[in-house]
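User: Reviewer 2 asked us to show a designed sequence for the structure in our supplementary figure. I'm pasting the C-alpha coordinates here. Could you produce the per-position amino acids so we can include them in the response letter?
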Protein backbone atom coordinates (compact mmCIF):
# COMPACT_ATOMS: atom_id res chain seq x y z
CA UNK A 1 0.00 0.00 0.00
CA UNK A 2 1.17 3.54 -0.73
CA UNK A 3 1.14 5.57 2.49
CA UNK A 4 1.86 9.16 3.47
CA UNK A 5 3.05 9.40 7.07
CA UNK A 6 2.27 12.99 8.06
CA UNK A 7 3.98 14.06 11.28
CA UNK A 8 2.66 16.95 13.37
CA UNK A 9 5.13 17.23 16.30
CA UNK A 10 3.28 19.80 18.40
CA UNK A 11 1.73 19.82 21.85
CA UNK A 12 -0.23 22.89 22.99
CA UNK A 13 1.41 25.13 20.35
CA UNK A 14 4.95 23.99 21.23
CA UNK A 15 7.05 21.96 18.81
CA UNK A 16 8.91 18.84 19.96
CA UNK A 17 7.97 18.97 23.63
CA UNK A 18 5.96 16.47 25.69
CA UNK A 19 3.52 14.78 23.30
CA UNK A 20 5.06 16.76 20.45
CA UNK A 21 8.07 14.44 20.69
CA UNK A 22 5.96 11.36 20.05
CA UNK A 23 5.44 11.83 16.29
CA UNK A 24 9.17 12.32 15.78
CA UNK A 25 10.03 9.15 17.67
CA UNK A 26 7.38 7.08 15.89
CA UNK A 27 8.42 8.45 12.50
CA UNK A 28 11.99 7.34 13.19
CA UNK A 29 11.00 3.68 13.20
CA UNK A 30 7.71 3.18 11.36
CA UNK A 31 8.82 3.82 7.76
CA UNK A 32 11.41 1.04 7.79
CA UNK A 33 8.98 -1.40 9.39
CA UNK A 34 6.25 -0.58 6.88
CA UNK A 35 8.61 -0.73 3.93
CA UNK A 36 9.85 -4.15 5.10
CA UNK A 37 6.28 -5.41 4.79
CA UNK A 38 5.91 -4.19 1.23
CA UNK A 39 4.33 -0.79 1.83
CA UNK A 40 5.61 2.33 0.10
CA UNK A 41 6.03 5.14 2.64
CA UNK A 42 6.42 8.85 2.00
CA UNK A 43 7.25 10.92 5.11
CA UNK A 44 6.10 14.52 5.53
CA UNK A 45 6.01 17.04 8.37
CA UNK A 46 3.56 19.86 9.01
CA UNK A 47 4.89 23.00 10.69
CA UNK A 48 3.13 26.12 11.92
CA UNK A 49 4.15 29.35 10.25
CA UNK A 50 2.77 31.63 12.96
CA UNK A 51 5.30 33.99 14.51
CA UNK A 52 3.23 34.48 17.67
CA UNK A 53 2.18 31.11 19.03
CA UNK A 54 -1.15 30.76 20.79
CA UNK A 55 -2.70 27.37 21.46
CA UNK A 56 -5.80 27.81 19.30
CA UNK A 57 -3.98 29.84 16.67
CA UNK A 58 -1.32 27.18 16.12
CA UNK A 59 -3.87 24.34 16.25
CA UNK A 60 -5.94 25.77 13.43
CA UNK A 61 -2.87 26.86 11.46
CA UNK A 62 -1.67 23.26 11.65
CA UNK A 63 -5.15 22.07 10.63
CA UNK A 64 -4.84 23.99 7.37
CA UNK A 65 -1.43 22.44 6.71
CA UNK A 66 -2.66 18.96 7.56
CA UNK A 67 -5.66 19.38 5.30
CA UNK A 68 -3.39 20.29 2.40
CA UNK A 69 -1.12 17.25 3.01
CA UNK A 70 -4.08 14.86 3.36
CA UNK A 71 -5.68 16.16 0.18
CA UNK A 72 -2.34 15.78 -1.61
CA UNK A 73 -2.00 12.20 -0.43
CA UNK A 74 -5.44 11.35 -1.77
CA UNK A 75 -4.70 12.98 -5.15
CA UNK A 76 -1.63 10.75 -5.39
CA UNK A 77 -3.62 7.64 -4.46
CA UNK A 78 -1.94 7.31 -1.06
CA UNK A 79 -3.43 6.60 2.36
CA UNK A 80 -2.87 9.46 4.85
CA UNK A 81 -1.67 8.42 8.31
CA UNK A 82 -1.20 11.32 10.75
CA UNK A 83 1.24 11.05 13.65
CA UNK A 84 0.35 13.92 15.98
CA UNK A 85 0.92 15.26 19.45
CA UNK A 86 -2.63 16.51 19.87
CA UNK A 87 -6.08 15.29 18.88
CA UNK A 88 -7.18 18.66 17.46
CA UNK A 89 -5.25 17.66 14.33
CA UNK A 90 -8.36 15.61 13.45
CA UNK A 91 -9.94 18.82 12.14
CA UNK A 92 -7.30 19.11 9.44
CA UNK A 93 -7.46 15.43 8.56
CA UNK A 94 -11.22 15.48 8.05
CA UNK A 95 -10.99 18.73 6.10
CA UNK A 96 -8.41 17.23 3.77
CA UNK A 97 -10.59 14.22 3.01
CA UNK A 98 -13.11 16.54 1.33
CA UNK A 99 -16.42 15.50 -0.23
CA UNK A 100 -18.90 13.55 1.83
CA UNK A 101 -17.68 13.39 5.45
CA UNK A 102 -16.43 10.08 6.86
CA UNK A 103 -17.60 8.30 9.96
CA UNK A 104 -15.22 8.78 12.89
CA UNK A 105 -14.09 5.94 15.16
CA UNK A 106 -12.40 7.66 18.10
CA UNK A 107 -10.33 5.59 20.54
CA UNK A 108 -9.50 7.69 23.61
CA UNK A 109 -9.43 7.53 27.39
CA UNK A 110 -11.27 10.87 27.25
CA UNK A 111 -14.35 11.97 25.34
CA UNK A 112 -12.80 15.29 24.22
CA UNK A 113 -16.35 16.67 24.15
CA UNK A 114 -15.85 19.73 26.31
CA UNK A 115 -16.30 23.18 24.81
CA UNK A 116 -14.68 26.46 25.87
CA UNK A 117 -17.79 27.00 28.00
CA UNK A 118 -17.61 23.65 29.81
CA UNK A 119 -13.90 22.89 30.12
CA UNK A 120 -12.44 23.07 33.61
CA UNK A 121 -8.80 22.65 32.56
CA UNK A 122 -8.70 24.99 29.59
CA UNK A 123 -6.82 22.31 27.62
CA UNK A 124 -7.68 22.85 23.97
CA UNK A 125 -7.29 19.17 23.15
CA UNK A 126 -10.21 18.36 25.44
CA UNK A 127 -12.46 20.14 22.92
CA UNK A 128 -11.26 18.10 19.91
CA UNK A 129 -14.26 15.86 19.31
CA UNK A 130 -16.62 18.70 20.24
CA UNK A 131 -14.93 20.77 17.54
CA UNK A 132 -15.04 17.94 15.01
CA UNK A 133 -18.80 17.60 15.59
CA UNK A 134 -19.35 21.34 15.16
CA UNK A 135 -20.04 22.31 18.78
CA UNK A 136 -17.46 25.05 19.17
CA UNK A 137 -14.69 27.16 17.61
CA UNK A 138 -16.96 28.08 14.71
CA UNK A 139 -15.01 31.18 13.72
CA UNK A 140 -11.72 29.31 13.64
CA UNK A 141 -13.26 26.40 11.73
CA UNK A 142 -14.41 28.79 9.04
CA UNK A 143 -10.74 29.34 8.21
CA UNK A 144 -10.05 25.64 7.54
CA UNK A 145 -10.76 24.94 3.86
CA UNK A 146 -12.91 21.90 3.19
CA UNK A 147 -14.02 21.29 6.76
CA UNK A 148 -17.56 20.04 7.40
CA UNK A 149 -18.66 18.94 10.87
CA UNK A 150 -19.30 15.28 11.55
CA UNK A 151 -22.84 14.37 12.60
CA UNK A 152 -23.10 12.69 16.01
CA UNK A 153 -24.71 9.66 14.36
CA UNK A 154 -21.47 9.08 12.43
CA UNK A 155 -19.26 8.98 15.55
CA UNK A 156 -18.18 5.95 17.61
CA UNK A 157 -16.29 6.63 20.84
CA UNK A 158 -14.26 3.67 22.07
CA UNK A 159 -12.65 3.15 25.48
CA UNK A 160 -13.52 6.52 27.06
CA UNK A 161 -13.62 6.44 30.85
CA UNK A 162 -12.29 9.74 32.21
CA UNK A 163 -15.30 11.98 31.60
CA UNK A 164 -16.43 15.36 32.91
CA UNK A 165 -20.12 15.75 33.90
CA UNK A 166 -21.09 17.73 30.74
CA UNK A 167 -19.53 15.00 28.60
CA UNK A 168 -21.41 12.29 30.51
CA UNK A 169 -24.66 14.17 29.97
CA UNK A 170 -24.00 14.53 26.25
CA UNK A 171 -23.15 10.86 25.82
CA UNK A 172 -26.26 9.87 27.79
CA UNK A 173 -28.32 11.36 24.95
CA UNK A 174 -27.14 8.44 22.84
CA UNK A 175 -26.56 10.14 19.50
CA UNK A 176 -22.83 9.40 19.73
CA UNK A 177 -22.35 5.66 19.96
CA UNK A 178 -20.04 4.58 22.78
CA UNK A 179 -18.23 1.27 23.19
CA UNK A 180 -16.82 0.98 26.72
CA UNK A 181 -13.85 -0.94 28.04
CA UNK A 182 -14.93 -4.42 29.12
CA UNK A 183 -13.88 -6.15 32.29
CA UNK A 184 -10.21 -7.07 32.06
CA UNK A 185 -9.40 -4.42 29.47
CA UNK A 186 -11.16 -5.94 26.50
CA UNK A 187 -13.45 -4.54 23.83
CA UNK A 188 -16.69 -6.27 22.82
CA UNK A 189 -15.88 -6.74 19.14
CA UNK A 190 -19.45 -7.54 18.12
CA UNK A 191 -20.71 -4.34 19.73
CA UNK A 192 -17.90 -2.41 18.06
CA UNK A 193 -18.70 -3.90 14.66
CA UNK A 194 -22.39 -3.06 14.98
CA UNK A 195 -21.62 0.49 16.09
CA UNK A 196 -19.16 1.06 13.23
CA UNK A 197 -21.56 -0.41 10.66
CA UNK A 198 -24.35 1.89 11.88
CA UNK A 199 -22.07 4.95 12.00
CA UNK A 200 -20.80 4.43 8.46
CA UNK A 201 -24.32 4.23 7.03
CA UNK A 202 -24.52 7.35 4.85
CA UNK A 203 -20.88 8.29 5.49
CA UNK A 204 -17.90 7.93 3.18
CA UNK A 205 -15.68 5.34 4.84
CA UNK A 206 -14.05 5.89 8.20
CA UNK A 207 -11.45 8.11 9.83
CA UNK A 208 -9.81 6.03 12.55
CA UNK A 209 -8.49 8.22 15.36
CA UNK A 210 -6.38 6.46 18.00
CA UNK A 211 -5.28 8.42 21.06
CA UNK A 212 -2.70 6.12 22.60
CA UNK A 213 -3.77 6.92 26.16
CA UNK A 214 -6.78 4.67 25.59
CA UNK A 215 -4.33 1.86 26.42
CA UNK A 216 -4.31 0.68 30.03
CA UNK A 217 -1.46 2.59 31.71
CA UNK A 218 -0.71 -0.41 33.93
CA UNK A 219 0.41 -2.17 30.75
CA UNK A 220 1.84 0.81 28.87
CA UNK A 221 1.57 4.50 29.76
CA UNK A 222 1.31 6.82 26.77
CA UNK A 223 1.26 10.21 28.51
CA UNK A 224 0.53 12.11 31.69
CA UNK A 225 -3.23 12.12 31.05
CA UNK A 226 -3.69 8.34 30.94
CA UNK A 227 -6.54 6.96 33.06
CA UNK A 228 -6.75 3.61 34.83
CA UNK A 229 -8.84 0.66 33.63
CA UNK A 230 -7.95 1.11 29.98
CA UNK A 231 -7.83 -1.17 26.96
CA UNK A 232 -5.19 -3.88 26.84
CA UNK A 233 -2.86 -3.68 23.84
CA UNK A 234 -3.92 -7.02 22.40
CA UNK A 235 -7.58 -6.00 22.65
CA UNK A 236 -6.85 -2.65 20.99
CA UNK A 237 -5.09 -4.38 18.09
CA UNK A 238 -8.05 -6.73 17.63
CA UNK A 239 -10.46 -3.79 17.79
CA UNK A 240 -8.59 -1.84 15.13
CA UNK A 241 -8.52 -4.93 12.91
CA UNK A 242 -12.29 -5.27 13.36
CA UNK A 243 -12.82 -1.66 12.34
CA UNK A 244 -10.71 -2.32 9.24
CA UNK A 245 -12.79 -5.36 8.31
CA UNK A 246 -16.06 -3.48 8.84
CA UNK A 247 -15.44 -0.20 6.99
CA UNK A 248 -13.21 1.33 4.34
CA UNK A 249 -10.31 3.18 5.94
CA UNK A 250 -9.85 6.67 4.48
CA UNK A 251 -7.37 8.05 7.03
CA UNK A 252 -5.89 7.23 10.42
CA UNK A 253 -4.18 9.10 13.25
CA UNK A 254 -2.00 7.99 16.14
CA UNK A 255 -1.86 10.74 18.75
CA UNK A 256 -0.85 11.81 22.26
CA UNK A 257 2.35 9.80 22.72
CA UNK A 258 4.85 11.27 25.17
CA UNK A 259 8.02 9.11 25.01
CA UNK A 260 9.13 10.26 28.47
CA UNK A 261 6.45 7.96 29.94
CA UNK A 262 7.53 4.99 27.81
CA UNK A 263 11.03 4.06 28.96
CA UNK A 264 10.65 0.46 27.75
CA UNK A 265 9.23 1.42 24.36
CA UNK A 266 6.05 -0.60 24.89
CA UNK A 267 3.73 2.12 23.61
CA UNK A 268 5.87 2.67 20.52
CA UNK A 269 5.73 -1.05 19.71
CA UNK A 270 1.98 -1.03 20.33
CA UNK A 271 1.61 1.89 17.90
CA UNK A 272 3.36 -0.18 15.24
CA UNK A 273 1.03 -3.12 15.87
CA UNK A 274 -2.03 -0.87 15.75
CA UNK A 275 -0.99 0.65 12.45
CA UNK A 276 -0.31 -2.75 10.91
CA UNK A 277 -3.69 -3.98 12.17
CA UNK A 278 -5.34 -1.07 10.38
CA UNK A 279 -3.43 -1.79 7.18
CA UNK A 280 -3.28 -5.58 7.13
CA UNK A 281 -5.66 -6.99 9.72
CA UNK A 282 -5.13 -8.66 13.06
CA UNK A 283 -1.47 -9.36 13.89
CA UNK A 284 0.47 -10.38 16.95
CA UNK A 285 0.88 -7.32 19.22
CA UNK A 286 4.47 -6.15 19.60
CA UNK A 287 4.06 -5.37 23.29
CA UNK A 288 6.86 -7.34 24.90
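Assistant: Here is a per-position design you can include in the supplement:
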Amino acid sequence: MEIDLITVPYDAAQRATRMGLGPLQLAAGLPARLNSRGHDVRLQEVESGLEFATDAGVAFDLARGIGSRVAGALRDGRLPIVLAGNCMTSVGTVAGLGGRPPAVVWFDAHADLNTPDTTRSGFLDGTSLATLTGRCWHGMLAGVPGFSPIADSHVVLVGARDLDPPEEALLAEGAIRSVPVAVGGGIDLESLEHAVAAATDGADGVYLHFDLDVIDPEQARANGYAALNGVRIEAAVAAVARVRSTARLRAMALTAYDPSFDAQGTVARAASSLLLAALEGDIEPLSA
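For the response letter, you might also mention the following. The chain has a mean pLDDT of 96. The chain has one domain: 2-280.
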